[in-house]
């Protein structure tokens, strides 16, 4: 992967992670770096899932349906990570 591709993946991952985080109600106890990581992973999983669902992923311009799948996957990822890290932090405070 080229340096430009890495930078693009980080930027797109950050945007997808933030959009996914906006869809999850309440406060999520995860930081910006974890949100970006969830967004990057969600971008790859969302593209794969869109391809499996026969959603066009190689069109001219923005692939809105693929982006929607990526954001929904990111929202699920943020909720999952926030739930796991939230329980871990809450459990540590109760001791």
From TrEMBL:
Its main location: membrane. It is a multi-pass membrane protein. The chain crosses the membrane at residues 6-24, 31-55, 67-86. The keyword Membrane applies. GO terms for cellular component: plasma membrane. It is found in: Cell membrane. Keywords: Cell membrane, Membrane, Transmembrane, Transmembrane helix. Belongs to the UPF0410 family. This is Transglycosylase.
């Amino acid at each position: 992967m080229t340096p430009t591709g890495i930078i693009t993946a980080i930027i797109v991952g950050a945007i997808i992670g933030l959009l996914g985080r906006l869809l999850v109600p309440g406060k999520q106890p995860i930081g910006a770096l974890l949100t970006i990581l969830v967004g990057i992973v969600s971008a790859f999983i969302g593209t794969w899932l869109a391809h499996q669902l026969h959603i066009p992923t190689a069109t001219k311009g923005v692939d809105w349906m693929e982006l929607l799948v990526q954001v929904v996957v990111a929202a699920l990822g943020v909720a999952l990570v926030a739930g796991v890290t939230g329980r871990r932090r809450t459990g540590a405070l109760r001791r």
